[in-house]
Amino acid sequence: MFRLIKKLILLGIIFALLVVLGIGALGYIKYQEAIEGIPVMEKVESVKDDEDFVRLEDVSPDFTDAVVAIEDHRFYRHGAFDLISLVRAMLTNLKAKEIVQGGSTLTQQVAKNLYFSNNQNFIRKVAELFVAFDLERIYSKDDILELYVNIIYYGEGNYGVKEASLYYFGKTPEELSYEEATFLAGLPQAPSLYSSNDNMAKQRQSEVMEALSEYRSE
Fold first, then answer.
1. What Cα–Cα distance (Å) separates residue 24 from each residue in 21, 31, 91, 129?
2. CA neighbours closer than 13 Å in the CB half-sphere of residue 184
3. In the chain, pLDDT over 70 holds for what percent of residues?
């Protein structure tokens, strides 16, 4: 009986490894298809060529700091992925018995928005990670953050911080006040929800302010 249990456990481990390897291989194929269609540098340049693209120095520091604080607190201290944040998110989700927190880094979010859809599946996540490795290899952290603020969706049909700033406040990104910056930084988590629900948007803004205060005190 003991030998049978050992064999079953061993078979289970082998099966799990085969599944992981299969997903990894399919993810790599998806990644290759994506970058063969449009190479990473070409894709990035197409984003920068947009008339609404803004340089990082032309965005309020309150906004960029708030984005890092709430979306990827350790952004400047890790690579394409952050194992600590991933484990923390997994534990939080297990405790809540639902997905309430993501473990993706800002770089992974940029990779997803450059090439892939929002459909959640492991193959896409692997492909996204390969693109994230490319981004981290080619570009600086500030370059990646600059891409993030220019391509993320902020609700009400607004993509990028320039469109969002003008739509919500009638201001350019560099003119945003602390309150306006922290409001916008909180939208990407659930843009359609927060942009249409003032109470939830204010609650999210409070979370951003708390995260920003902690981030700046480090």
1. 5, 10, 23, 10
2. 34
3. 89
